[in-house]
Amino acid sequence: MTSLIDFGRIFLFSTFVVFAVSKLAKPAGFRDHIAATLPVSLSAARALAAGTLALEFAAAGLVMFDATLTAGSGLAAGLLAAFTAYIVFLLVKDPEAGCGCAGRSERVSALDLARNVVLLAVSCLTLLVSASGADVPPVTDDPAWFLLAGASAVAVAHAGQIRHVVALFTAPVK
C-alpha cells in the first residue's frame, strides 16, 4: 500500500502544481474563460479563478504531508469531481468551447473527460487507502520513492498532453 499511496501523493501533487501554475501564467485568460463559459459575472469569475488556484495549490501541498494526506486527497477528489462535472457541462452546453484545462484553450473533448475520470480515480483511491489507516511511512523512507516520483511525473506529463499521446496511435483523419 505504501507504493500506491506514494504514487497517488506524487501524481496528485504534480498534477495540481502543473495545472495551477499553467493557469497562474495567464490569470486573466483563466478568469475570462470562466466568465465566458459559466453564467457568472466578471467579479464572480475573478473570485472563482482565484479560489480555484488557491484550492489547487492547497491540494498539492496537503497531499505531500503525512498528517494531511487524507484531507489533501479528499480536496483533490472534490476538485476533480467539480472539474469533471464542468467538462460534462461544456460537452453538453458548448462542445466548441475550450475546457480551460491547465490554461489551454483547445476545444473540450471526450479525452478531457477521460483524463479527469482517471485523475478522479487516482485521488479517490489515494483517499480511500490513506483514510483506511494503512501505515504510511515518511515520504523519503524508501529509495523506491524516487522511482515512483519519476513514474508519476511521466504520468502527469502524459495526462496533460493526452491529445498528443492519442494522436501517436491514430491515423490522421482525411
What does this structure look like?
- The radius of gyration is 17 Å and the shape is globular.
- The protein has helices at 2-25, 27-37, 42-63, 69-93, 110-131, 144-160, 162-168.
- It contains seven helices and no strands.
- The chain has one domain.
- The protein starts with a helix and ends in a 6-residue tail after the last helix.
Layout of strands and helices, then pairs:
Layout: H1 2-25, H2 27-37, H3 42-63, H4 69-93, H5 110-131, H6 144-160, H7 162-168
Helix pairs in contact: 1-3, 1-5, 1-6, 2-3, 3-4, 4-5
Give keywords:
174 residues; mainly alpha
Radius of gyration, in Å, reads 17 Å
The portion of residues forming beta strands comes to under 5%
Helix content: over 70%
What coarse outline follows from CA principal-axis ratios? globular
As for the number of domains, it is: 1
Based on secondary structure, the structural category is mainly alpha
**Biggest sheet record:** none
**Mean of residue pLDDT values:** 80
**What count of helical segments does DSSP give?**
7
H-E order = HHHHHHH
- Low-confidence residue ranges: none
Total strands: the figure is 0
